[in-house]
Write a structure and sequence with these properties.
It is a single chain. The chain has one domain (6-187): 2-enoyl-CoA Hydratase, Chain A, domain 1 (Alpha-Beta Complex), CATH 3.90.226. Helices cover 52% and strands 17% of the residues. It has helices at 30-45, 68-73, 77-96, 112-119, 135-138, 146-153, 155-164, 170-175, 186-201, 205-215, 222-236, 240-250, and strands spanning 6-12, 15-21, 51-56, 61-63, 100-105, 108-110, 122-126, 131-132, 181-183. The longest helix is centred in the middle third of the chain and has 20 residues, at 77-96.
Length: 252
């Protein structure tokens, strides 16, 4: 149990599976995010792992983004930096992992969860996997996950999601490149995941590692870029505008 959530990791037939859970829509508090980043790094170094599968429990939400409880508790710059660095650590871990990271997206995806799906090398979803970047509605913006979303979907789609801060269905997400495949239900999604895992574990690991390097070309500055975005967000959260907005949401 990690911060009212869990991370389960296992290796079978060359697949390193990471499954996370949080009772509030699979939201991710900082400790859970750090645990996920650490596990991705471990699988990246494990020679028995040929591909990494990232998934969550339940059938309604893949990830509700950052923990709102922790968000509400921020009261100083240091705490703000610590809070928002969580998704930065996970996205950077997914980027530097020498193995393909596949995301199984079985339900709705919000905020930082969109960043996770975008940072995956391949994401499979269901028709229920609507996506939303809600940060602007809170008075901040999807700055930290922005590089990952822009890389996967392009500036136009990223801008559309960031500005309207509303839901987009799975068909739109697939059209824009966030999802590689969309299935009618979870059962067919899981069949698709199994088929893909079997295929990838039979490929040449060295070729896959080299291909991942090619696919991530142009992201060499992300260590500095993403952490700079953390600083922007951390400072915005402490402004009166955001404090007043969060207070209104809290008192609803």
């Amino acid at each position: 149990m990690v911060a009212s959530g869990t991370i389960e990791a296992s290796v079978k037939d060359g697949v390193g599976e990471i499954c996370f859970f949080h009772p509030k829509g699979n939201s991710l508090p900082g400790e859970l995010l750090r645990g996920l980043a650490s596990q991705v790094d471990k699988f990246g170094e494990d020679s028995s792992v040929k591909v990494v599968l990232l998934k969550s429990q339940g059938d309604r939400a893949f990830c509700a983004g950052a923990s709102f409880d922790e968000f509400l508790a921020i009261d100083d710059l240091e705490g703000s930096r610590n809070f928002f660095s969580g998704f930065a650590h996970l996205i950077l871990a997914m980027r530097r992992c020498p193995k393909f990271v596949v995301a199984r997206v079985q339900g709705k995806v919000v905020g930082g969860g969109v960043g996770i799906a975008a940072a995956a090398d391949y994401a499979l979803a269901t028709v229920e996997s609507s996506v939303r970047l809600s940060e602007l509605a809170l008075g901040i913006g999807p700055f930290i996950i922005g590089p990952a979303v822009r890389r996967k979907m392009g500036m136009s789609a990223f801008g559309q999601m960031a500005v309207d801060a509303d839901w987009h269905d799975s068909a739109w997400a697939r059209e824009k490149g966030l999802f590689a495949e969309v299935y009618p239900d979870i059962d067919s999604l899981d069949k698709g995941v199994v088929e893909l895992m079997q295929k990838l574990t039979e490929y040449n690991p060295e070729a896959m590692e080299q291909l991942k390097t090619v696919l991530w070309e142009g992201t060499e500055d992300w260590e500095e870029l993403v952490h700079a975005r953390v600083e922007v967000t951390a400072r915005l959260v402490l402004t009166d505008f955001v404090k007043n907005t969060v207070s209104k949401i809290k008192n609803r």
